[in-house]
Amino acid sequence: MAYMGSKAIDIERMPRGGPNASCLDRLLETDRLEYLDRDDVDEGVKRSVIRALEWTGEKFGQTENFARIALDEVADVADPKILELGAGHGGLSRKLLDWHPTAELTVTDIEAESVAAMAASDLGEHPRATVRKMDATAIDAPDSHFDLAVFALSFHHLPPSLAARVIADGTRAAGKLLIIDLPRPPWPLHLVRLATMLPFAPWIPFVHDGVISSLRTYSPSALRVLAEHAGADVELRGGLVSPQVVVASARR
Ligand SMILES: C[S@@+](CC[C@H](N)C(=O)[O-])C[C@H]1O[C@@H](n2cnc3c(N)ncnc32)[C@H](O)[C@@H]1O
């Protein structure tokens, strides 16, 4: 249970739009899984989604934008230790290693195939990078081991109880947890976004996963409830059309 003011909230049943989500917002939600989360999907389909994420991130400047946001959070740390969770292709870690001369990166994902692909890439050879498998809900590191943990475009994959666990464990293992995820716009705008993607979803795996991501992304109020449940303080930024940025730290 999370307690917001005097109200107890059952987070497992909380809509992605938060406890006070409108009826229409509650309809824009799904239990369907993305290809990336399914075990019954051909590995080639999943790799195509990961490659498309890497390509769009580079092409549209998102990777650079996320790297800038992450580096701002460790601007006062001389040699930051950074953990990337759910790294997928490792593009963000690669950018952080390029831009920061001394940052040490632990680059992780829960999917063995993604970890193997990143380890076989330049990241596997990089003297300041360690590539390994890790579940963001059970971070294998001592308390405060990292200055920053980053979880980009991945938080919506998790149901509320696991999402809250990421906040709790991320803020335990790192001084700050940075979550960057898709915005959850008000329902009319959300409908427009879905309408532009839906015709392509049956044919393009990346768009299929994009539609489900859009329906599963959390609203700012839901993020606050999850942080409260995890006992963390949060600062929320962005979010209407730009990605949502959450900076969480353990409440001391
Ligand atoms: C949409 S991809 C995002 C990849 C990359 N971060 C990006 O910004 O393009 C989501 C990633 O989260 C990973 N993931 C899902 N659940 C996870 C968990 N519990 N722990 C760690 N990674 C997870 C998936 O394997 C996938 O690589």
From TrEMBL:
Single GO MF annotation: methyltransferase activity
Keyword presence, Transport: no
Keyword Membrane found: no
Full protein name: Class I SAM-dependent methyltransferase
Domain named Methyltransferase: residues: 82-168
Top-rank taxon, per record: Bacteria
Keywords carried by this UniProt record: Methyltransferase, Transferase
Source organism of the structure: Mycobacterium deserti
Gene3D superfamilies with a match to the protein in the record: Vaccinia Virus protein VP39 (3.40.50.150)
Gene Ontology terms describing biological process: methylation
InterPro entries linked: Methyltransf_25, SAM-dependent_MTases_sf
